[in-house]
Amino acid sequence: MSLDLIVDGERWRAHLRTVASSTPGLVPVAKGNGYGLGLGRLARRAEWLGVDTLAVGTYDELPEVASRFPGSLLVLTPWRPWVAPLAPDLQRRVIHTISRPADLGALTARQQAPRVVLERMTSMRRHGLSAAELWDTAPIARRRARIEGVTIHLPMTGGNLAEARRLMDDVVGAEASTVWISHLTLDELRSLQAAYPDITIRPRVGTGLWLGDRGALSVTAKVLDVHPLSRGESYGYRQRHGASGHLVIASGGTAHGIGLAAPSGDAGLRGRAAVAAKGGLETLGVLRSPYVLDGKPLHFAEPPHMQASMLLLPRGTRVPEVGEKLDVRVRYTATTFDSVTVS
Ligand SMILES: *Cc1c(COP(=O)(O)O)cnc(C)c1O
Known about the structure:
The protein has 343 residues and is an alpha/beta fold. Helices cover 28% and strands 27% of the residues. α6 links the parallel β6 (115-120) and β7 (146-152).
């Protein structure tokens, strides 16, 4: 009754090694649901890759990785005064992110000489210090903390090199020797390194590392039941009717994160009107599902249930057997799998 993530281990590990060897200073990011693979597994892989630092998203994620990865742990969410004090063994390993001048004083009042990175605001406008705040805060950080560099989080739009270069001048102004950075291509990283040879660049990578070779990953559900459906027969929680063909009941539902996001494509009003004009299944209010049979996406018969989904198979489509596997196209970071198998 499950939604399973299956990883071709050899291919996945080869990809991890390729990324690590082509990305000097790599800092793997393990956060959230561990990119679908689980935080603990990513922490063990980070140790296997031989990196010195692993980044996590939040303080709450530290316990799950700290026992599996022995190196430094960078917390990406900026420190705030309500963060509980760390256990002494973690105090030595954790690098805090400081994004407001006042937080540095509050943190150093609680922990002696904490390891910190100073976050510079970017065009993301999520967290960070202005240039003036960075320059004011850096000397204080050098006196009262162990400053590990400046951190910059860039958008995912690509073409971030110009912004990175502008912000590097602030890094230099703050007399920092290391910059922690995200979302630059390998070429952009090389070009930045060439322009600033004295600064150590630490690229943070999550998606491109763990999920960078999609061919190494597959997600499968199982056909739990198949029923013929004649026109006029009603079905499901909502007792819809009007369609005919087959109902396929597949494992996987809202508890796994199935179908919470609008399926891509025909979601807009205009798209729906176009489909309705063509007389597709969408005229019945059914939406494309992430389940795939014989390479073609299937449609939901009604919104997904908690642990199962009802799919509508139009006449003329091959009818799968109970127990048959269906491919499922999901967002790994938003899906909870019942099992993850790495071969
Ligand atoms: C999530 C995150 C990353 C990694 O992002 P990916 O797109 O998964 O590579 C890097 N830096 C920060 C600050 C993040 O929050």
